[in-house]
Write a structure and sequence with these properties.
Largest sheet: 3 strands, parallel
Distance between the termini: 39 Å
Helix content: 40-55%
Number of strands: 3
Shape: globular
Structural class: alpha/beta
Strand order of the largest sheet: 1-2-3
Radius of gyration: 13 Å
Oligomer: single chain
Strand content: 25-35%
Order of helices and strands: EHEHHEH
Length: 77
């Protein structure tokens, strides 16, 4: 069984997320991607995430977090 790892895609820019995904593809691990509230609520976020059918996805939608993350999430909403 292959080991799993999740990579945090903590950005609001889809181009950066595409780069992260392209650079982390491997046959040695099962790679999943974590997206936060900021990315999810961008204009393209939900649609972008829904197209990632080949990957394991974790969407972290909590607001109870460190203050900087909460402020950025509220701005995204």
């Amino acid at each position: 069984m292959k080991k799993k790892i999740f990579i945090a895609c903590d950005t609001t820019k889809p181009d950066i997320v595409k780069k992260i995904i392209n650079q982390t593809n491997t046959d040695k691990l099962v790679v999943g991607y974590k997206f936060g509230l900021e990315f999810f609520f961008t204009a393209i976020g939900r649609r972008f995430i829904s197209k990632l059918k080949k990957h394991e996805i974790f969407v972290d939608l909590k607001l109870n977090d460190i203050p900087n993350t909460c402020a950025a999430a509220i701005n995204a909403i």
